[in-house]
Each structure stands twice: as C-alpha cells, then as structure tokens.
Specification:
Elements lengths: L18 E5 L2 E5 L4 H6 L19
Antiparallel strand pairs: 1-2
Length: about 60
C-alpha cells in the first residue's frame, strides 16, 4: 500500500485530513484544500492523476 499523501501538496495524514478516491482500480488521496482543484480545475492534476488531462471541469 502506498503512503497516504495528498496527490497535490504531498501532505500526509499527520498534517491534514485526507479523502480517499478510487480511480482506475487504484487508490489516491487528496486533502480538503485541493478538492476544489479536482472539481473545478482538474487539468492541474495532469501528471499527478492518470488521464486528468481528459477530465472536464464542473461549470
């Protein structure tokens, strides 16, 4: 199992609360501060989350 760290800021569960997400049969973690990035600017996750360049932002 990989270490639990926010995929954006790399803070771990000892520093911030983390929310688990499952995508393409893998588990990822994101902190509450970066959930808006996932929703509104998913292109910023390119290189951090496979296929993020194909995500559409919520309008």
């Amino acid at each position: 199992m990989s270490e639990k760290k926010c995929l954006v800021c790399q803070k771990d569960e000892m520093e911030v609360p983390l929310v688990q997400l499952s995508y393409k049969e893998k588990e990822y973690w994101i902190c509450p501060q970066h959930i808006p990035v996932l929703i509104h600017n998913p292109n910023q996750l390119e290189g951090l989350l496979p296929g993020a360049e194909n995500f559409k932002a919520y309008e």
